[in-house]
Design brief:
Post-SET_dom, 3 helices, Probable histone-lysine N-methyltransferase set-23 isoform X1, 5-stranded mixed β-sheet, zinc ion binding, globular, mainly beta, Pre-SET_dom, binds S-adenosylmethionine
Length: about 260
C-alpha cells in the first residue's frame, strides 16, 4: 500500500483561498531572521552508500536512532530530528521526509472556526502531513506585528537544550503554506515537531499522532503537548468541541 520513501518529491500544488496571500512551500527569512543560522547547515553529512540507518549514518547518529520507519512514519515524537540534506552522499535514503513536501489529499474548507484543513485521504499515525511555513521573524518583530484580533498566524516554538534555549518564530499571516489553515484542538490528531534539514533554523513539521479518517479535520494543540493550566489560556473561546475542551485557546506564549 505504501511505497518506500526514496527521494520521491511530493509536489506542493496547494494554494491559498484568497489571492491577497502569498504561497510559500517552505520558510523564507523575514525581518529579524538570523541569517547566519538560516544559511548554516547543521554539522552533519553522511557517506551512506546503502539506506541511511543506525548506527552508520552520521545524520541519524546525531539523534541516536532512526527518525522514520521504512514507510516514512515518525518513530518517536520526543527527540531531535536531523534529516539528510544536499551535502550528504546518500542516494537512497530513509531519513528524508519533511523535505519531500506535503502529503496529497489536503483540503481547505470553511466551517465553525473559519477556514480549516481537512484530509480527503486517511492518514496513519506517524505520517507527515505538511509544514507550518511562513516568514521567519524574531520576537520583537512578532510583538510588533501581533494584533489583538482573534485570528493569529504567528507560531512560536521554544526548544530547550542542555545549555541554551532556541526560539523560532514563524509568521504565516501574509506569506505561508497550507499549514496556516490548521486549527487548534484540545484533543488533536497531529502535533508540530521541529525538524532540521539544511538550516539551523528548524522547519515546523506536522505529524499525525493518531490514525485520521477521510474527511476529518487536521488539528494540533496550539499550546504544545504538555498540560496547560488556566493561566495559559487566552480569552478566545475554543470551538474544538472535544470532550476535554479547555474552553479557550492557549495563550500566545512567548510573545508577551
Ligand atoms: C492559524 S489560524 C487557523 C486558520 C483560521 N481558522 C483561518 O480561518 O484562517 C488560527 C486562528 O484560527 C482560529 N481558531 C483556530 N482554532 C480554533 C478553535 N479551536 N476555536 C476557535 N477558533 C479557532 C482562531 O481565530 C486562531 O487565531
Amino acid at each position: 500500500m505504501f511505497k518506500k520513501l526514496l527521494f520521491h518529491q511530493r509536489e506542493d500544488n496547494y494554494d491559498h483561498i484568497n489571492n491577497t496571500l502569498i504561497y510559500t512551500i517552505t520558510n523564507i527569512p523575514g525581518p529579524g531572521c538570523n541569517m547566519n543560522d538560516f544559511n548554516s547547515c547543521p554539522n552533519q553529512m553522511c557517506n551512506c552508500t546503502d539506506l541511511c540507518h543506525t548506527p552508520n549514518c552520521e545524520c541519524i547518529a546525531l539523534a541516536g536512532y532512526n527518525n522514520y520507519d521504512e514507510f516514512g512514519k515518525l518513530i518517536s515524537v520526543d527527540k531531535l530530528i536531523y534529516e539528510c540534506n544536499d551535502l550528504c552522499k546518500c542516494t537512497s535514503c530513509q531519513n528524508r521526509n519533511v523535505q519531500l513536501g506535503p502529503r496529497i489529499g489536503l483540503r481547505i474548507s470553511h466551517f465553525n472556526k473559519g477556514y480549516g484543513l481537512y484530509t480527503d485521504i486517511a492518514i496513519e499515525k506517524g505520517q507527515f502531513v505538511c509544514e507550518y511555513a511562513g516568514e521567519i521573524i524574531d520576537i520583537s518583530e512578532a510583538q510588533r506585528r501581533s494584533n489583538l484580533d482573534n485570528v493569529n498566524y504567528i507560531f512560536v516554538i521554544n526548544e530547550h537544550f542542555s545549555d541554551h534555549t532556541t526560539t523560532t518564530v514563524i509568521d504565516s499571516t501574509i506569506i505561508g503554506n497550507i499549514g496556516r489553515y490548521i486549527n487548534h484542538s484540545c484533543q488533536p490528531n497531529c502535533m508540530i515537531i521541529p525538524v532540521r534539514i539544511d538550516s539551523l533554523i528548524p522547519r515546523l513539521a506536522i505529524f499525525a499522532v493518531k490514525d485520521i479518517q477521510c474527511n476529518e479535520e487536521i488539528t494540533y494543540n496550539y499550546g504544545g503537548e504538555g498540560s496547560y493550566s488556566q493561566n495559559n489560556l487566552s480569552e478566545v473561546p475554543c470551538l474544538c468541541e472535544s470532550n476535554n475542551c479547555k474552553g479557550f485557546l492557549p495563550h500566545k506564549r512567548g510573545l508577551f
